[in-house]
Amino acid sequence: MVVNGLARRTPLIAGNWKMNLDHLQAIAFVQKLAWNLKDAGHDFTAVEVAVFPPFTDLRSVQTLISADKLDLAFGAQDVSAQESGAFTGEISGAFLAKLECQYVIIGHSERRTLHNETDEQVSAKIAAALKHNLVPIICVGETAADLELHGPSAVPVAQLRAALANVSNAADIVVAYEPVWAIGSGQAATPEQAEQVAAQLRAVLQETLGQDVADKTRILYGGSVKSGNIAAYMREPNVDGALVGGASLDIAEFSSIVRFQKHVGR
Ligand code: PEP
């Protein structure tokens, strides 16, 4: 997309359903979301839309999207670092690729805090995703305590550096800056805060993977994104979309977030 003579990264609006909607509800939801966006005249090439259902919904979502030729992307909320074998409860990148997932969320703060996922595990999962041509959406973000102790950028920057340990400079990745204190709290970061950290994350991409990757990689903001605040984030030059939790479960609200261009000249 070219705006004011400048090439811009295609925005991505990603809906993380977390542990919500069973496979039958997922079918009805995806159908309605696609109709809603189509009826509203949404240009899917201008703003990409992706949904992240629970593992058990993926086959149904894949079948529906493929059969009805819907312009929605989809992916999983996690992936195993392992390829196959005696890893009870784990899902491998190979399985996700077979289901035609394009993306996988890795290192979400709920995995880091509730499942004690470490930077090393996040890095290994990213390698597993890339091995199967899945685009990892690498989540980084500071807690309220980190913010108080170290300021906004130190923890996300350190997490991204660790996450990129196994990533080559040809990799297709997405980064999501999600301050933990903003997730599900209704207390979103200001657009200026999001931009400040996103710019630092882009600098890490440039240092570690080079200018081309830094230029092409989309950096999302996540944390209490709603239709009322998305436009302000999208005006920021280093914010290329949003990872949306709660609001992604409301079709009208999520559609309105996707259609942020109604409110912003981008
Ligand atoms: C999330 O869980 O990734 C998220 C951003 O949640 P919410 O939009 O509900 O804050």
Q: Could you explain how this protein is built, in words?
A:
There is one protein chain. The chain is an alpha/beta fold and 266 residues long. The protein has a single domain (22-82, 100-263), classed as Aldolase class I (TIM Barrel, Alpha-Beta Barrel), CATH 3.20.20. Helix content is 40%, strand content 15%. The chain has 11 helices and 10 strands. It has helices at 23-39, 58-67, 93-98, 109-114, 119-131, 144-150, 154-163, 191-209, 211-216, 230-234, 251-258, and strands spanning 2-3, 6-7, 12-16, 48-52, 73-76, 103-106, 135-140, 174-177, 218-222, 241-244. The chain has an 8-stranded parallel barrel, surrounded by 5 helices. A hairpin with a 2-residue loop joins strand 1 and strand 2. Helix 1 (23-39) runs parallel beside helix 2 (58-67) and helix 1 crosses helix 11 (251-258). The longest helix is centred in the last third of the chain and has 19 residues, at 191-209. Residues 1-6 have low confidence and may be disordered. Bound molecules: phosphoenolpyruvate. Phosphoenolpyruvate binds next to strand 10. Phosphoenolpyruvate (PEP) is lined by residues 16, 178, 183-184, 222-225, 243-247. One of its GO terms (molecular function) is triose-phosphate isomerase activity. Belongs to the triosephosphate isomerase family. It catalyses: D-glyceraldehyde 3-phosphate = dihydroxyacetone phosphate.
